[in-house]
Amino acid sequence: MTERAPRGSGRRTPGLRRKIAMLFLLFGLVLGAGLTIQGNLSQQLIVHPIWRDLLQSSTNQYLADGDSRPAGHHLPTSGLVRGWNLRGTTLPGDMPPYFASLEPGYYDEHDMDAYDSDRSHAVLVTPAGDGRIVMAVDITELEDYQNMTAMVSVLIAILSGLMILCSVLWLYHSMNQPIQSLARRMEGLDPEQPSQRLQTDFALRELHDIAVLVNRHLERVERFIERERSLLDQASHEFRTPIAVIAGAVDVLKLYELPPGARRPLERIESTTRNLTEIMAALLFLSREAEARAPVEAIRLDSLAAVLVDDHEHLLQGAQASFVVAELQPLWVECPEAIARIVVGNLLRNAAENSHEGAITVTLADHCLSIQDNGAGFDTVAAARRYTQALRDSTKQGGGQGLGLFLTRRICERFGWTLTISSNPGSGTLAELRFPPARR
Predict the structure, then answer these.
(1) Using the 8-state DSSP alphabet, how is residue 99 labeled?
(2) Closest CA to 314 of 279, 274, 277
(3) Residue 289 confidence (pLDDT)
(4) Per-residue b or e along 52-63, where b marks 16 or more CB atoms closer than 10 Å to that residue's CB
(5) Closest by CA position to 348, among listed 298, 408, 297
(6) How high is the pLDDT of residue 183?
(7) Which SUPFAM superfamilies did the record assign (predicted)?
(8) Which CATH architecture has domain 196-294?
(9) Domain residue spans in the chain?
(10) Vertex 417, ends 412 and 420: CA angle to 5°?
(11) What are the 10-residue block averages of pLDDT along the chain, 440 residues in total?
């Protein structure tokens, strides 16, 4: 049977690397938005109403002085702001020719791009008598400066993006490899090997602290396990004495002539005492598992199975069921006899307790002990849940029913045996215990 680790009910939050990457990405987006806004603001300066106000003010000043002066008089003829008084068909030589084709009104830089793509002007054409006043401001240098700042903004955005990308990649590699190394070291810890510790030679201070804390936790767990093992060892020895006294008293009582009604209870006491003795032996064996391997002991499982079938016949008294030994091939198994008795006895006991009629077939062939009953069967998924809960309850509450399950699981893990139980409601249960080939 396989236990699966319970999954957390809450949702997992993004990892640290993803959070850092998201933070850098957010910073990049804010920077890009800022540069975009700055570019738009500088572009708005090109078409700002200030240019119209400037040209209108210059034109109004000229018109306020009177329009009887010669053409071009009092109009600026140099600098960024220049003006022309157009009368007749003669065009000033310093005025761009296409200004003469403009209708009265204001033309910003975007409007003038259709006439001249090399220079940028804002132009105001105002009717004046039989002529027109043309005022223009040359904003070519301002637009060139705006274009240059826009290019600089784009370069800053590209460089910032590259820096963010490089920073994320650097953080990913500088953090991912040490974290993966810590994970591999933790995964490499063998729970069956005591006194294991993580190496703490991490360059990152945080990972070093984590490794130190894990080692401290391992030390506390080892001390706890050692206390539990010591308590189990002492308790097993303490229980051996009263069990031995009860077994001795049973042997003495068997020497006397007892009433027929007392024979049956005496046999039950003897059987229970023997089972307790085997359980104590198994607990002592498992408590020493992490310290040293016990000497290899080989037993004949076929002979032991035949004896255990006879020992469990009393469980079927009053029921219309019986054990049927179909085949018992000779099989040597490397384990103490008490250990094998506990596992096989549990399987036989479970089959007997859940069978009320029919045959319970016991077969030992091809390194596999199978026990098939004709009981009511059960839902394997629900049984797996009950099995896991029973194991937890046995460790938390010391439940007697969970002790058999606990010992069966630990023994199978210890010796590399595989226990498979298949069942369907109404069709009985099949328990298969597979053994690895014995090393001869």
Answers:
(1) G
(2) 274
(3) 53
(4) bebbeebbeebe
(5) 408
(6) 85
(7) ATPase domain of HSP90 chaperone/DNA topoisomerase II/histidine kinase, Homodimeric domain of signal transducing histidine kinase
(8) Orthogonal Bundle (1.10)
(9) 16-45+145-187, 69-140, 196-294, 296-434
(10) 90
(11) 43 67 80 77 71 84 65 69 83 84 86 79 86 87 80 84 82 79 84 78 83 89 82 76 86 84 83 80 68 66 91 83 90 87 88 85 92 71 55 44 70 87 79 80
> 27-47: b or e for each residue (b if 16 or more CB lie within 10 Å)?
ebeeeeeebeeebeebbeebe
CATH-assigned architecture of domain 296-434: 2-Layer Sandwich (3.30)
Torsion angle of C-alpha atoms 157, 162, 164, 168, degrees rounded to 10: 160
User: Are the beta carbons of 86 and 102 closer than 8 angstroms?
Assistant: no
Q: Residue 296 class from Cβ within 10 Å (0-12 exposed, 13-18 middle, 19+ buried)? A: exposed
Among 332, 342, 331, 330, residue whose Cα is nearest residue 283: 342
Check residue 290 and give its pLDDT. 46
Q: Which helix (H) or strand (E) holds 186?
A: helix 140-187
Tokens 């953080």 — which residue?
171
Q: Which amino acid, residue 369?
A: L
DSSP H helices in 88-139 = 109-112
Give the 3-state secondary structure of residue 361.
Answer: strand
Residue length, the chain?
Answer: 440
Instruction: Tell me the one-letter amino acid at 394.
Output: S
Residue 365 is predicted with a pLDDT of: 92
* Residue 408 CA: distances (Å) to CA of 41, 342, 387: 78, 7, 12
pLDDT at 1: 40
